[in-house]
Specification:
Urease, subunit C, domain 1; TIM Barrel; seven-stranded parallel β-sheet; globular; 410 residues
């Protein structure tokens, strides 16, 4: 890694000192200091002098991670009645639910389609401090509920690709969600939109009896780099990755070799320990760990992205791999390699996390529980070098050192 040759005049804006840096892109897992200047990572080194910075954060005992990327969430919030995750009350304004979990980038997965994206951009993307990316729904109306999501007449690959082309780096893929019935046409239209736009697609199957074949989806319909979300789901009308005997279906390994991407997307009904535990035991780890955040799951088993990450730590997935699945992996998958890493010159989106030890319980989407002894908690979040969340005041002055207020005497 290239080190900065000169300290900026006046010093670095902020120095994170003494933390355990976990940066998958650069292969770093060890004690490192990170200096920040003008919203960028200016230097990463073993011991950067405190005198070189205007402000120093003591990160001893903490993990220093690139800002987390939640690559399955729902943030096209609004007040329209009965519009589900497209300008409706089931979606959430991002800033209230991201920074406190160390998340600096979210991917809205299909809330908006080509008809509704401009409203989503103006209403949410342009006003949020959180970086909001989008998968454009193949349905023009967006994710407004079952009646809309079944409308094959509103699935237009050409118009979807046209809108995506206007917003490169913001629209980073195409989504198919919740289609009901044994019909491959919606999948084909979604992949066609991906071909036209040069972007990956994410598939969230609905329900059908009999279920559509995952083997066919993975090996015949999807392309390398396309995403299958809710990979540890076990719901009626959808084939599961682990069969009733607890064995990972053999075509899953072939799909991974092909380059199919497996995303968690915990959500309200899409993460089952009965799937995750045997899958991990057989060596099947997710490529990306995500929350599927919306009002239907945030107070249930899911809670937040850190809770989901903690589940995987307690299921035996190594900590560096867990954090990689919420930083560098999604950045690569979504064509945004400028994110999810802390190279010199990268944007200073950073999360300081504490790995707490104790007695904790973790619940899946079906209400089943595992016990664990490790849990991630966010101490500090930086977005473009600015403090946007500070749980215990790591960057705050003691009140006696603060500038005194003027007292008005009547």
């Amino acid at each position: 890694m290239t080190l900065a040759k000169h300290v900026p005049e006046g010093g670095y804006d902020l120095l994170i000192k003494g933390g355990q840096l976990i940066d998958a892109k650069n292969g770093i897992y060890g004690k490192m200091d990170v200096a920040i200047h003008a919203g960028k990572v200016a230097r990463v080194a073993v011991d950067i002098p405190a005198k070189d910075a205007k402000q120093v954060v003591d990160a001893a005992g903490l993990l220093v991670s690139p800002g987390l990327i939640d690559m399955h969430a729902h943030h096209f919030f609004g007040t329209d009645p009965d519009t589900y995750l497209c300008n409706g009350a089931w979606a959430l304004p991002p800033d209230g639910f991201t920074f406190r979990s160390g998340v600096t980038t979210v991917l809205d997965t299909g809330g908006a389609g080509w008809r509704s994206f401009e409203q989503f951009k103006k209403q949410t993307i342009d006003t949020a401090a959180t970086r909001v990316l989008s998968l454009l729904n193949i349905v023009g109306a967006g994710m407004k509920g079952d009646a809309y999501e079944q409308d094959k007449g509103d699935m237009d690959p050409g118009k979807t690709a046209e809108v995506a082309a206007h917003y490169p780096g913001v629209i980073v893929g195409v989504k198919l969600a919740h289609f009901l019935g044994a019909d491959w046409q919606p999948t084909a239209l979604t992949v066609a939109a991906g071909e036209l736009s040069g972007l990956p697609v994410m598939i969230d199957f609905g329900r059908s009896e009999p279920p559509l074949s995952l083997e066919t989806l993975f090996l015949e319909k999807l392309r390398p780099g396309d995403i299958y979300t809710h990979c540890y789901a076990n719901v009626s009308g959808r084939e599961a990755l682990v069969d009733h005997r607890g064995r990972l279906r053999p075509f899953v390994s072939k799909a991974r070799e092909k380059g199919i991407w497996f995303d968690v997307g915990h959500g309200q009904a899409s993460f089952d320990f009965a799937q995750a535990v045997p899958a991990l035991a057989q060596g099947f780890q997710p490529d990306s760990i995500s929350s599927d955040l919306h009002t239907g799951c945030m107070n249930g088993g899911m809670k937040d992205l850190l809770n989901v990450l903690s589940k995987f730590i307690n299921l035996g997935m190594p900590l560096p791999k867990v954090l990689q699945a919420a930083t560098w992996n999604p950045a690569r998958c979504l064509g945004r390699p400028d994110l999810g890493q802390l190279s010199e010159g990268a944007v200073a989106d950073i999360a300081l996390l504490k790995l707490r030890e104790g007695r904790f319980g973790f619940v899946d989407a079906s209400g089943k529980k595992i016990d664990g002894n490790l849990k991630l908690e966010c101490e500090l979040t930086l977005r473009e070098g600015k403090v946007v969340y500070d749980l215990n005041g790591l960057t705050a002055l003691p009140w006696k050192q603060a500038r005194p207020l003027h007292t008005v005497v009547n």
